[in-house]
Design goal:
It contains five helices and eight strands, in the order βαββαβαβαβαββ. The chain has 231 residues and is of the alpha/beta class. It has an eight-stranded mixed beta sheet, sandwiched between helices.
Amino acid sequence: MPKTILIVGGSSGIGLELARHYIAEGHRVCITGRRDPYMPGALFFHLSIGAFADQLVPAINELVAAFPGVQTLVYAAGFLQRGAIETLSDEALLTMTNVGIVAPMMLATRLKLLAPTPLKLMLITSSSQYTPRPQEPAYAATKAGLAMLGASLARDAGVGKVLVAAPSGIRTPFWRGADEDTTSMLDPVWVANQIIELSGGPFKYRYAKILRNPARVEIVETLDNSFAPVV
């Protein structure tokens, strides 16, 4: 049965690949981002998440009103500023926090109340979720927070399935302009296919690492509706 799927951070990379897959399956898909990818079959909502709450709140409210009936939220947005903590500006810290954890929390609060079926969540984090890096203190904190948000919401009987997927380095425009060697990074199409596979089947919560060198998937935890590990 066709579902209504909202993909935040779907202008490129994994989000766009997931959108392509769900459109091909006949689902109703809305993509958000800073630029329109002109994906046939998808609606687009311009959502630029910055440092200021007075701009974020009305933008989130407008998005939710513009695309009613969301059954699945795919959160694939990310914003990275590297540097020792004392070198990061307040604006960079606020933007990373808003993109990484505040916006998905705000969306979950609204969509859970409005969803016609228990809201399903697919949260795309990063290896920074579980790998402390001295040049990524704020980014790592937001990714770890997003993962814990998913794990906590999975314990809510009013929420549907929750998948937390933590990929390690993907060749996407996320790295454009950065001094980063992307040659050994994961292919976004392959990563999207792993996420789709991970999201299938009966479970309440699943957390998986998507690793490279070699490319592989490691399912860390799966819980059923009784919140007991699935053997």
